[in-house]
TrEMBL record, chain A:
Keyword Plastid applies: no
Ranges of biased composition (kind: Basic and acidic residues): 97-116, 223-236
Name assigned to this protein: Auxin-responsive protein
Organism: Raphanus sativus
Xref: PROSITE patterns: PB1 (PS51745)
InterPro entries linked: AUX/IAA_dom, AUX_IAA, PB1-like
Domain of life: Eukaryota
Keywords: Auxin signaling pathway, Nucleus, Repressor, Transcription, Transcription regulation
Gene Ontology CC terms: nucleus
From TrEMBL, chain B:
Residues spanning the signal sequence: none
Recorded GO CC terms: nucleus; SCF ubiquitin ligase complex
One Pfam family recorded for the sequence: F-box_5
Record-linked InterPro entries: COI1_F-box, F-box_dom, Leu-rich_rpt_Cys-con_subtyp, LRR_dom_sf, Transp_inhibit
Source organism of this protein record: Raphanus sativus
SUPFAM superfamilies listed in its UniProt record: RNI-like
Main localization, broad class: nucleus
Record-level GO BP terms: auxin-activated signaling pathway; pollen maturation; SCF-dependent proteasomal ubiquitin-dependent protein catabolic process
Keywords assigned by UniProt, alphabetized: Auxin signaling pathway, Developmental protein, Nucleus, Ubl conjugation pathway
F-box domain mapped to chain residues: 46-87
GO terms assigned for molecular function: auxin binding
Location relative to the cell: Nucleus
Protein name as annotated: GRR1-like protein 1
Pathway info: Protein modification; protein ubiquitination
Length: 236, 626
């Protein structure tokens, strides 16, 4: 890798015709003004760095000609070892690629078997009044409807309830049954299932709970702080 | 330990002096009695065996260097007993001289290129070749067991020579080296039957594939540490598994990035005795069963103290590491792209942590957690996560470092990358932690002043050097005037290494440093506006230092010539990739590298390096020998 200021030296080659003049001047024993040095040596000064988001950006027009190098274009700055630099550059590329990929996926929300979530997909589910909890694999589901169906089969399907309850799979989610589905997120807050986009939901859900509608009254869709505190007290 | 042995040596020398004196007196009083045995009278030196035994307690090379200056017999005894030889600049002395001087040499450490080579400021091909050293040692010191090289050019030929020449070879540690391929590593693996350490740290290797791993002998190996984290290609899992199974002494294993997460568990099961682990990639998908197996395997590593690797660590996998956290003394997260708040879960469990390397993704909040939970912290490094300054959008400010300096009483070494800083923060940090030995602050925006007061950071660094009396290493940045360097010159008496970029106003800066910093050994400067006068005035100082690097400064060709002619034991190298056609004395040079040497100008310079000749009439000679 050819390092060492090749960008900075571009200015020099333009000065060849003037070289003789400079030499004569110097030969007469004149002291070297910083101007001569600046052309030859091309030392970077404060003017070359329009600082990120500060007033000095306006002053950058005052220096000679060529556009100022961004601090990232200066060789060897910031002083990070090349191994680490390569790793960083890779990371930026991966981030960019991922961001693109995310955008594409957001558009196709209902893709079946959209298994792009890393890590464990299993979360515990407890139903009020039932001692033993179950586990459900979030990754195996593609939407809230899907999830609700599984849960209903798990907790309601076996009780020998009337056929009517099986036929309408969205009851857990639309508030028309006596139970609602809630979840605990990463920050420890309990919320109603269904408020956020599915993809965001599966990355933040920690636990699921099927609770009675009466108890869940405090969980309104737009959350207010007092309500959060109230339901925390309820669940405590 | 060093001071104890020095004290011991001092006491000894006093005792010796008294003994020698009494010998002499005794001898004088006996001149009238010629019947006394000649051998008793002749041997006025303290018996070699006793000296040798005493010197065996003197470990540090600095102490040994002092010991060797006391008198000729001490020099002789010391040189015959030195086992670990350290040469800080491979061009300061010839390999032959070193080989001859230390007959009992078992370990050789060499450093080649200047430190700024790490940041691409030294053009390729500058030098730092390991071959002459290895050739010389192979011929004269075949009992050599360890070679440690930093920033040197090592070829496959070198590695093959090592494998072929040193029958008891045990340890090869290459840091930031280049020029070899995996074939060379295979040669070492297959031939050095007693190999204990094979560590490639941040080397640039011509990676021809992962086959080299299969070259280790089939029988049980004596491997204690294996580090191939800088290689790119995949090694075969079965090779690695079998190697681990037959390496019962392995304590340190650092995998490369292409070792995927799903195989980690199987590897750890075969090496539960590991003290240091560098994982491979930590971002692959695992199913719950695999995760629980991995968690269990990690929890079985009861002796694990150091964890690194963790490339692209995903937040979901952080709990997997919980079991090892409480025992960890060293954690390197600098390749783990985990952000807040996930990092807190990890760090709050690491109460024994002494060394932490992270990216600025840790933010001020995370550093506050560190300040609260990691009370044993001695070393902190915070690296930038954005390759480009403009991409930095994390909230890591000077406050993070202030918190850590408040909370971690034992903190003594810091490397901190931050966009901007304040004098007030530096003053607080200095007040909190006068025990700093290494303080490297990189304000990433060049010429950035204190962003609150718009003042230069002079006062801040003044506080640092005033209060931290034991400061050995300092890197400064931000807007600095000559005043800052006056303070450094006045206060930083123990400073050995100083790095400066984009700072100062004039020659005075250099003058303050060279005339003030008594212990200065290495000075590296880039893009600062001064040169000739200070350099020439303080020429004598340069011989007390290991080296001086200046790039993109105002040093003229004429000054280089003068300096070189004035100081016969300095090599003054002019490194110019775009030299002008004619070179008048006033023309500036791109870079100079000045170092003391007893070996004269080197003979392996490439075409862009000129060593100024000592004789004025010869001028400049470019001695390039292929």
């Amino acid at each position: 890798m050819r390092g060492g200021g090749s960008e900075l030296e571009l200015g020099k080659s333009n000065l060849l015709p003037a070289e003789n003049e400079l030499e004569l001047g110097l030969g007469l024993g004149l002291s070297l003004g910083s101007g001569a040095w600046r052309e030859r040596g091309r030392i970077l000064t404060a003017k070359d760095f329009p600082s990120v988001g500060s007033k000095r950006a306006a002053d950058s027009s005052s220096h000679q000609g060529a556009s100022p190098p961004r601090s990232s274009q200066v060789v060897g700055w910031p002083p990070v070892g090349s191994h680490r630099m390569n790793s960083l550059v890779n990371h930026q590329a991966v981030k960019a690629a991922k961001a693109e990929g995310e955008e594409v996926k957001q558009k196709n929300k209902d893709e079946p078997k959209d298994v792009s979530v890393h890590g464990s997909g299993f979360v515990k589910v407890n139903k009020d009044g039932v001692g033993i909890g179950r586990k459900v694999d979030m990754r195996a589901h593609s939407s809230y409807e899907n999830l609700a169906q599984t849960l209903e089969e798990m907790f309601f399907g076996m009780t020998g309830a009337t056929c009517g309850e099986k036929v309408r799979p969205l009851r857990l989610l639309d508030g028309s049954s006596e139970f609602v589905l809630t979840y605990e997120d990463k920050e420890g807050d309990w919320m109603l299932v269904g408020d956020v986009p599915w993809r965001m939901f599966i990355t933040s859900v920690k636990r699921l709970r099927i609770m009675g509608t009466s108890e869940a009254n405090g969980l309104a869709a737009p959350r207010h702080q007092e309500e959060k505190d109230r339901q925390r007290n309820n669940l405590a | 330990m060093a001071s104890v042995s020095l004290l011991f040596v001092t006491l000894l020398s006093v005792t010796l002096y008294i003994n020698i004196k009494s010998f002499i007196l005794w001898d004088q009083s006996q001149t009238f009695l010629p019947s006394l045995s000649d051998s008793v009278l002749m041997d006025r030196r303290f018996p070699f065996k006793v000296l040798e035994h005493i010197f065996s307690f003197v470990d540090s090379n600095e102490d040994r260097n002092s010991v060797s200056l006391v008198c000729k017999s001490w020099f002789e005894t010391e040189r015959r007993t030195r086992k670990r030889v350290f040469v800080g600049n491979c061009y300061a002395v010839s390999p032959l001289k070193v080989a001859r001087r230390f007959p009992k040499m078992r370990s050789l450490t060499l450093k080649g290129k200047p430190h700024f080579a790490d940041y691409n400021l030294v053009p390729d091909g500058w030098g730092g070749y390991a071959w002459p050293w290895i050739e010389a040692m192979a011929a004269r010191r075949p009992l050599l067991e360890e070679i440690r090289l930093k920033r040197m050019v090592v070829t496959d030929e070198c590695l093959e020579k090592i494998a072929a020449s040193f029958r008891d070879f045990k340890s090869l540690v290459l840091t930031s080296c280049e020029g070899f391929s995996t074939d060379g590593i295979a040669a070492i693996a297959s031939t050095c039957r007693k190999l204990r350490n094979l560590e490639l740290r941040e080397c640039i290797v011509d990676d021809l594939g992962g086959d080299w791993l299969s070259y280790f002998p089939e029988t049980s190996t004596s491997l204690v540490s294996l580090d191939f984290s800088c290689l790119d290609s995949e090694v075969k899992l079965s090779d690695l598994e079998r190697l681990l199974s037959r390496s019962p002494n392995l304590k340190s294993l650092k995998l490369n990035r292409s070792v995927t997460l799903d195989v980690l568990e199987s590897l750890l099961r075969r090496a539960p005795q590991l003290v240091e682990l560098g994982t491979g990639s930590f971002s692959d998908e695992l199913d719950p069963e695999e995760i629980s197996k991995l968690t269990k395997a990690l929890s079985e590593l009861k002796q694990l103290k150091s964890l690194s690797g963790l490339w692209d660590l995903l937040p979901e996998y952080i709990p997997v590491l919980y079991s090892v956290c409480p025992r960890l003394t060293s954690l390197n997260l600098s390749y783990a792209t985990v952000q807040m708040p996930d990092l807190i879960d990890l760090l709050s469990r690491c109460s024994k942590l002494q060394k932490l390397w992270v990216m600025d993704l840790i933010e001020d909040k995370g550093l506050k957690t560190v300040a609260l939970c990691c009370k044993e912290l001695r070393e902190l490094r915070v690296f930038p996560s954005g390759a480009d300054l403009d991409e930095t959008d994390v909230t890591l400010t000077e406050q993070g470092l202030v918190s850590v300096s408040e909370g971690c009483q034992k903190l003594e070494s810091v490397l901190y990358f931050c966009v901007q800083f304040t004098n007030a923060a530096l003053v607080s940090i200095a007040k909190n932690r006068p025990n700093f030995r290494c303080f490297r602050l990189c304000v990433m925006e060049p010429f950035a002043p204190d962003y609150r007061t718009q003042q230069p950071l002079d006062e801040g660094f003044k506080a640092i050097v005033e209060r931290c009396k034991d400061l050995r290493r300092l890197s400064v940045s931000g807007l600095l005037t000559d005043k800052a360097f006056e303070y450094i010159g006045v206060h930083a008496k123990k400073l050995r290494m100083l790095s400066i970029a984009f700072a100062g106003d004039s020659d005075l800066m250099l003058h303050h440093l060279l005339s003030g910093c008594e212990s200065l050994k290495k000075l590296e400067i880039r893009d600062c506006p001064f040169g000739d006068t200070a350099l020439l005035e303080n020429a004598a100082k340069l011989e007390t230092m290991r080296s001086l690097w200046m790039s993109s400064c105002f040093v003229s060709f004429g000054a280089c010539k003068q300096l070189s002619q004035k100081m016969p034991r300095l090599n003054v190298e002019v490194i110019d990739e775009h030299p002008p056609k004619t070179r008048p004395d006033s023309s500036p040079v791109e870079r100079i590298y000045i170092y003391r040497t007893v070996a004269g100008p080197r003979l392996d310079t490439p075409e862009f390096v000129w060593t100024i000749h000592k004789k004025p009439e010869v001028g400049v000679s470019r001695l390039a020998i292929r």
